[in-house]
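Support request, please re-run this one:
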Amino acid sequence: MTAEEGMYDMEYIRVTDDNIEKEHICCAISNNKDVQVSSKKTWLKERFEDGLVFLKSVERGKCFIEYIPAENAWIPIDADNYMYIDCFWVSGSFKGHGYANDLMDECIRDAKEKGKAGLCVLSSEKKKPFLSDPGYLKYKGFEVTDRSDTGIWLMTLRWDESAELPQFKPEARHPKINEEGYVLYYSDQCPFNAKYVPILESAAADNGIKFRAIHIDTKEQAQSLPCPCTTYAFFHDGEFITNEEFSEKKFLKMALGESGRTKNEA
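Re-run finished. Output below.
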C-alpha cells in the first residue's frame, strides 16, 4: 500500500508476522527491547491468525489503525459479521494531512471486501483519551448504536441494512463488580500497561491501598468482562471509574486524598 501503487499520496505499511520485528508499531515507543513494545508485539502476533490488521504510516509516530473481525475482538459486544476497530490514532504532526481518512477508508474497503456488514468502534459523547473521536466518526457516517452507563458509546457504520446493529452485552452496558477497593482489568493490547500497571501495584503495596490488577489474557475473558473497555478498566468499590491510564501520582492523589502524600512522606 504505497504511493507508487497510486492508492494514496502518503505511504502505508501493513504490519504482519513477516515484518513486525523490524517495524515501529505505535505511540512514541521505538525500542524493541522495551517491555511495552515487546508485550504489544507479542499480543499482535497472537491475533494475526484471528484476522487482526495493523496498518500504519511509514513514518514513526501515532498514525495507525488496528482492527479485527468483531467475533474475535477483545470486547463485550454482540456484532455479528462486523469489523471492530481496536485502536485508531492519528495525532501530532500527522493531523490535517489526510492520514485519518486514508486509514479509515482502507479499513472500510477491506471490511467490504471481506463481506462484513459494517464497522463498529468505542467512542463517547465527548472526546475521551484512548477512545475514538465522536465528531470524526459522525463525519464518516457512524451512528451511536448503544450506550454504557459509563458514558462510553458503541458507534457503528453499517452498509448492509439487513444486518442487526451492534450492541453491548448487558454486563458491559451496566458495569459493576462485587469487590471492594481498587480493581484494574487490563490487557497487553495497550503497550503502556506493561510499564504502568506494575508501578501502580507497587505504589498500592507501599501505601497499604487495597488494589488488585487482573491481567486479561484471552479473548473469552475479555468478551465476558463487566465493562465496555477491556484494555484498561479501573473500578473502585465496585463502580467503574475510568478507561484512562493512571500515573502513580494521579493514583495516589485519588487513593490518599488531595495531598497524595505517601506513608514515607506523611
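Confidence is low (pLDDT under 50) at residues 1-7. The chain has seven helices and 13 strands.
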